[in-house]
Amino acid sequence: MTLSEPLELQSPMEFEGTTMLEPGSLAVWFTFPGLWHDIGRFHRADGQLTGIYANVLTPVRIEGRVWHTTDLYLDVWQPVGGSDRILDEDELEEALSAGHIDGNTADRAREEAARLVRLSQEGVWPPPVVHEWTLERTQATLEDASLGA
Fold first, then answer.
1. Contacts of 7 (CB under 8 A, 6+ apart)
2. Regarding beta strands 49-57 and 26-31, do their DSSP bridges make them parallel or antiparallel, or are they unpaired?
3. Mind listing the domains of the chain with CATH numbers?
């Protein structure tokens, strides 16, 4: 799990008229070795949760302080109070056409994005840890750690 620094964005990141991230936003990221995605809790600058975001990527390999993975273009967005959506299918198609990704890997990315949406609809995604580690809990834990508590 990692906490982003306040984001320096030129303009808000929006989807269908709803702000996902804005300048000063924070994200709590969950990375799970072996899985084909990571998960972010996205918050506005005032700390309000806007939704859950998943990057579809190759399974992360962690070697000491170095992480290895490849973003596979697709993302899944679960806005607060809304339905899950697969994002950036056009980016995946462009990457496939340009030869930046092979057909088997593109198919695996599509399968993973569809699987996440299906698991969300079944009520089993994201995993409980993502709901348990709110921004407030993450910040309090980091503050306690910095104070030596």
1. 21, 22, 23, 24, 25, 26, 27
2. unpaired
3. 2-137 (2.40.380.10)
